Amino acid sequence: MSYETVRRWVNHFGPRIAADLRKRRLKPHTTWHLDEVYLKIDGRMVYLWRAVEGEVLDVLIQSKRNKHAAGKLMRKLLKKYAFVPERLVTGDLRSYGAAAHQLGIESRHQRGRWKNNRAENSHQPTRRRERKMQRFKSAGGVLEKKGIPSSVITVQMSQQDFTPELLRLMSGNPRPDLLMMIIAGEAVYPIIKQACEQSFAPSKATALYSGGGPALEKELWETAGECAKYLIAEDVALPAAQWNDVAKKFSANFEKQYSRPPTGTAMEAYDDLKIVAQAIRDAGSTKPAAIIQALEKLKFTGTRGEYSFSTEKSPAWAYHQFMKAPIMLIEYDKEGQSADQAPIIYPREWATAKELYLKPGK
Is residue 109 predicted with pLDDT exceeding 80? Predict the structure, then answer.
C-alpha cells in the first residue's frame, strides 16, 4: 500500500467519518461561553468569535464587532446543536445582549467580565500562534520588498470552477510572469486544466508552478492530460544521476511493487521512517527527549543522501534541521513524463535543461 493510497482514503472517507463522529458526540453542557478577539489576517483586522464549554463549540471570523456578527454566531450554534442552553455567558460587549434579545433568548443571557474567563482563556493558544507567526514573512511581503509586484487569491479546497479567479489574474496589467499554486491535494489538477484551457498558463507569457505532491504523480496526466506539459513542479529528491545505492535499490523495489517510479515525496517518507527507527534503536528508548538526543548525533545514509541534524542556533531556523535537504525544480516537456525523467531547471548546477524556463511552442 502506498502513501498516496492512504492520502486518497483520508480525502474520500475522512469527511464521512468526521460527520458520523459529530452525530455521536454528546450534547454540550447547558452553559455556553461566548467571546471575541481581534486578529490580523493577511494584513486585515478581523474578529475571531468563539463559543466554548470545556471544548470549543464553534468559531467564526467576522470583519465587524456588532449585533449582526454576535447574532450570526448564536444562530450558527443554535442550528448546529438544536437546543437553547440554560445560560449564555458573555463579556460586557452590548452586541451580545442585542443579539440575544433579537433571537428571543435574552432571559438565558448573563453578562460579566469575570464570568467569561473560560472563553477568554481559550483565545490564548491563538494569541501564542499569532506571536510566533509574526516572525515569518509572507511570500507576497518578501516579493514586495524586492520590488516584484504580486497578487494573492484564496480558493476553497472543495472548489471545482476556478474560472473567475483565473480571469481576474489574466486581466492584470502587466500579465503575470508566473502563476504559483500553493494548494494541497488534488485540487491542483482542475486549476492546471482550466488555466491551460483559457490559454493563460503554461504559456510563453506565464509559467505555471505547483509545489510537488500531486504534481509528481502519474494521476496528473490522467486528470490534466496535455495541459500539464510545461508545468513546473518541485521535487525533494536528488537527480537520478546522483542516486546512491540505497536510492537505486529503493527505486527498483518501489517500481516493481507499484508499477511507477518513486517521487521525492516517497523517498522522503521512506527515509523519515528509517531515521526515526534508527534513533529509537540508538536511544534504547521511545521517550521523546532520548530520541531527540539520538537524532542530534545521528549519521544516516538514506535515499536522499547523508542525513545529520544541525545543533546550531544561529540562525534560529537552522536548529535541528536537515541542512543538506535536496530540492529541485523540474519542468515537464513531454506528455505522460515521469518526474525522474523531466528536465531539471533549478538549481542550475544540477540543470539538464539549457534554459531556466522551457517556453511552450518555442
Answer: yes
The vertex-222 CA angle with 218 and 228, nearest 5°, equals: 80
**215 lies in some domain:** yes
Write out the residue range of the structural domain in which residue 247 sits: 242-318
- Give the number of domains in the chain: 3
Considering the entire predicted model, what is its pTM?
A: 0.62
Nearest CA-CA partner of 216 in 54, 47, 90, 337:
337
What is the Cα–Cα distance from 104 to 124, expressed in whole angstroms? 31
Read off the C-alpha cell for 256.
516493481
> What is d(CA 35, CA 116) in angstroms, rounded to the nearest whole number?
8
Q: pLDDT digits over 92-107, tens only?
A: 888 999 999 999 999 9
Per-residue pLDDT of 153-198, as tens digits, reads: 877 767 788 888 888 888 888 889 999 988 766 778 899 999 999 9
Residue 77 forms part of a structural domain: yes
- Residue 7 sits at φ, ψ, to 5 deg, of -60, -40
DSSP of 28-68: PPSEEEEEEEEEEETTEEEEEEEEESSSEEEEEEES--SHH
Together in a domain, 40 and 187: no
Q: Domain for residue 268, yes or no?
A: yes
